[in-house]
């Protein structure tokens, strides 16, 4: 749950970067404009959220899914977003699939190594893998903080 | 720059969105709707928000008066909210600015009008 007002805003650095890249080089963006765009972005998300809720209810679901978001964009007259969003979704799904296959392959390789008849060890390795994943996550968190 | 819309992931892999998903989830959860959001919907929302920021910035710049000075200002944004149907939902958070002196003048004029109306109706009553 958001406890501080800052939690309800997106990181300024990222917003500024997005704006700067969208506009040509050399365009100056006032601080006020930057902060107001950031507010507008949060507002956009909340507005989209409540709009998407209608589609979710129509589908009698309790979880917001990708089609709800796409329908919302059309509803809000942001049809221009639909194609790039669909592309992004495909890329994300491919990425997830790739990650899943990579971790499954890793597991298979490990199993092969320990296939010298020590079945108990493989159980431990499952735990190890979980631990590895946890460690990876923590490492990722640290790197995120560094960023 | 590859980092533009495709940010770098923690592992150094290219990520599809620059905005942090955890923060977006927090913002979405702060809304009154109680249902949860699946991961794909979250990624799409993040991407849509990026596209929105780009669109708002470029539209306001192109249609705004700051173009001559090569600057994007608050007034460019509030003009967009007022004039564009697509961005009209932002009108409440991007109100137009006026000078305080102008506002006070407007208030005075309004009060003046109300008093005039009151006098007229009193006169009418007196005559009848």
Automatic annotation (TrEMBL), chain A:
Pfam family, one: CBFD_NFYB_HMF
Gene3D superfamilies, sorted: Histone, subunit A
Keyword Phosphoprotein assigned: yes
InterPro entries (alphabetical): CBFA_NFYB_domain, DNA_Pol-Epsilon_Subunit, Histone-fold
Top-level taxon of the source organism: Eukaryota
Region (Disordered): 92-147
Residue ranges with Basic and acidic residues bias: 92-124, 134-147
Boundaries of every Transcription factor CBF/NF-Y/archaeal histone domain copy: 9-71
GO term, biological process aspect, one: leading strand elongation
GO cellular component, one term: epsilon DNA polymerase complex
Function of the protein: Accessory component of the DNA polymerase epsilon complex. Participates in DNA repair and in chromosomal DNA replication. Forms a complex with CHRAC1 and binds naked DNA, which is then incorporated into chromatin, aided by the nucleosome-remodeling activity of ISWI/SNF2H and ACF1. Does not enhance nucleosome sliding activity of the ACF-5 ISWI chromatin remodeling complex.
Subunit details: Component of the DNA polymerase epsilon complex consisting of four subunits: the catalytic subunit POLE and the accessory subunits POLE2, POLE3 and POLE4. Interaction with POLE4 is a prerequisite for further binding with POLE and POLE2. Heterodimer with CHRAC1; binds to DNA. Component of the CHRAC ISWI chromatin remodeling complex at least composed of SMARCA5/SNF2H, BAZ1A/ACF1, CHRAC1 and POLE3; the complex preferentially binds DNA through the CHRAC1-POLE3 heterodimer and possesses ATP-dependent nucleosome-remodeling activity.
Record-given protein name: DNA polymerase epsilon subunit 3
Organism encoding this protein: Muntiacus muntjak
UniProtKB/TrEMBL annotation, chain B:
Keyword Acetylation part of the UniProt annotation: yes
A cellular component term, taken from the record's GO annotations: CHRAC
Predominant subcellular localization, coarse grouping: nucleus
Pfam families: CBFD_NFYB_HMF
Keywords tagged on the record: Acetylation, Coiled coil, DNA-binding, Nucleotidyltransferase, Nucleus, Phosphoprotein, Transferase
Record flagged with keyword Flavoprotein: no
Location of the region described as Disordered in the Swiss-Prot/TrEMBL record: 109-128
GO molecular function: DNA binding; nucleotidyltransferase activity; protein heterodimerization activity
GO biological process: chromatin remodeling; DNA-templated DNA replication
Cell location: Nucleus
The Transcription factor CBF/NF-Y/archaeal histone domain, residue ranges: 18-78
InterPro entries registered for this protein in UniProt: CBFA_NFYB_domain, Histone-fold, Transcr_DNA_Rep_Reg
Basic and acidic residues bias (residue ranges): 109-119
Task performed by this protein: Forms a complex with DNA polymerase epsilon subunit POLE3 and binds naked DNA, which is then incorporated into chromatin, aided by the nucleosome remodeling activity of ISWI/SNF2H and ACF1. Does not enhance nucleosome sliding activity of the ACF-5 ISWI chromatin remodeling complex.
Subunit relationships: Heterodimer with POLE3; binds to DNA. Component of the CHRAC ISWI chromatin remodeling complex at least composed of SMARCA5/SNF2H, BAZ1A/ACF1, CHRAC1 and POLE3; the complex preferentially binds DNA through the CHRAC1-POLE3 heterodimer and possesses ATP-dependent nucleosome-remodeling activity. Within the complex, the heterodimer with POLE3 interacts with SMARCA5/SNF2H; the interaction is direct and enhances nucleosome sliding activity by the SMARCA5/SNF2H and BAZ1A/ACF1 interaction. Within the complex, the heterodimer with POLE3 interacts with BAZ1A/ACF1; the interactions are direct.
Protein name listed in UniProt: Chromatin accessibility complex protein 1
């Amino acid at each position: 749950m958001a406890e501080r007002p800052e939690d309800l805003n997106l990181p300024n650095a990222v917003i500024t970067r997005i704006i700067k890249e969208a506009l040509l080089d050399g365009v100056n963006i006032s601080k006020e404009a930057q902060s107001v765009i950031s507010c507008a972005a949060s507002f956009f998300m909340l507005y989209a959220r409540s709009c998407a809720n209608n589609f979710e209810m129509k589908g009698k679901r309790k979880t917001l899914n990708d089609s709800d978001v796409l329908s919302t964009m059309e509803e809000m007259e942001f049809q221009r977003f639909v194609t790039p969003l669909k592309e992004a979704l495909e890329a994300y799904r491919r990425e997830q699939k790739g990650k899943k296959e990579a971790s499954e392959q890793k597991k298979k390789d490990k199993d092969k190594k320990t296939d010298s008849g020590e079945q108990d060890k493989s159980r431990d390795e499952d735990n190890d893998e979980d631990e590895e994943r946890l460690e990876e996550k923590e490492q990722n968190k640290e790197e995120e903080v560094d960023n | 720059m590859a980092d533009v819309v495709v940010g770098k992931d923690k592992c150094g892999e290219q990520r599809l969105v620059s905005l942090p998903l955890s923060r977006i989830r927090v913002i979405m959860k702060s809304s009154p709707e109680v249902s949860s959001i699946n991961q794909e919907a979250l990624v799409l929302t993040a991407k849509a928000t990026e596209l929105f920021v780009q669109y708002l910035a470029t539209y306001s710049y192109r249609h705004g008066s700051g173009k001559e000075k090569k600057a994007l200002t608050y007034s460019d944004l509030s003009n967009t909210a007022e004039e564009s149907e697509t961005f009209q939902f932002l009108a409440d958070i991007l109100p137009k600015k006026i000078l305080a002196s102008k506002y006070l003048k407007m208030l005075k004029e309004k009060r003046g009008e109300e008093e005039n109306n009151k006098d007229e109706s009193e006169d009418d009553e007196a005559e009848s």
